[in-house]
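Hi all, long-time lurker, first post. I run a small reading group and we've been trying to get comfortable going from sequence to structure in the token notation. Rather than ask abstract questions, I figured I'd post a concrete chain and ask someone more experienced to write out its structure so we can walk through it together at our next meeting. Sequence below, copied exactly:
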Amino acid sequence: MSAPLKVDVSKAVGFKHKPQPVLYNSRDLMLYAISIGVKQDELKFLYENEPDFAAFPTYPLVLGLKKDNVGVSVYGMRGGDIPGIPVFDPNTLVHGDQSLEIHRPLPLGGAFELHSTVTGVYDKGKGMVIEHTVQMVDPKDPARPYTSMKGSAFVRGAGGWGGPKGPKQDSYEPPKDKAPDAVCEDKTTDDLAILYRLSGDYNPLHIDPRVAPKVGFKKPILHGLCTYGHAAHAILKTLGGSNPNALKSITGRFTAPVYPGDTLQTKMWTVPAESPKDQVKVIFQVLVKERNQVVINGGCVYLWANPAPSGPQSKL
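-- Answer (accepted) --
Happy to help. Here is the structure in token form:
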């Protein structure tokens, strides 16, 4: 039996990474939109000559791994760059929770920075959770971020070191006495992970059949953020009129893997919002139809009730 990891939470939590330069262009936006299920009936996310061409609002979630690369990048999240966190095998890492809040419309391209802070390190027994809070900013105007993102990474086999278990999470459970207000079904393709990885996440777990079995999967799995993007798209199209300005925030917890070729069902319940005049609150779950298995749980989206019309955004 291997010795427990030596983790120093006091050194890790509060650590601020160096600002990470990131960049993207309209082609990156279109490639991402295709990979999360956008079709020809929403050309505003796919065609640069559409009068209301816009970025799909969850796009910033890919930038942490894409960075400022214009070609294929080497996947290498290994720990060790965070004080108090030992080096770990990136192939043991899976996505836990993810949230995103939109503060202002996304430009159609340009150079930006991600400002990232470690906001939690938790011992979950079977693994370790590392939580980051990240803001996407214009380096010339960092006080007005475009988005705030909070994500947790679960490092399998890295628990048992006696650390804090973490705070109780908000519970966004579907109403027990109410059928979904809408259900969106999307059959993924067998090569979807190969397409989605071109947005910047080149983790071999999602393409290499030799790697997946080594970390407990029968074959390469779909990126969690691809499934997440499919859910956001289903909700925005169904309940937000496909208006990118309608999305205020989204949060969800990954609970099981998705394999390319699975059929995704996004179930949506509208529930009373804290600010009903301004916002629409949507609880959601994502299931794999073939296995009747929940793959994203604890999902919650806030939509603006009266968003600004979708229209062209500036390019830096």
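A couple of things your group might point at:
The beta strands are 20-24, 93-102, 110-123, 127-137, 147-156, 182-187, 247-254, 263-271, 279-288, 293-304.
The longest helix spans residues 224-239.
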